[in-house]
Amino acid sequence: MDKIKTTNILLFVVISLLVVQIFLNLELASNAKEHEKEKTEIGLPEELKTEVQKKAFFNSFKEYYNKKDYKALYEWVDESVRMEYSKERMVQTIEMLHSNVGSIESGVFNHFELMPAGNGTKAFVLFYTIKTTRGIASLKINIMQSGSELYKNMGFTIVSK
Question: Where are the beta strands (DSSP E) in 44-151?
Answer without folding.
Answer: 104-118, 121-132, 135-146
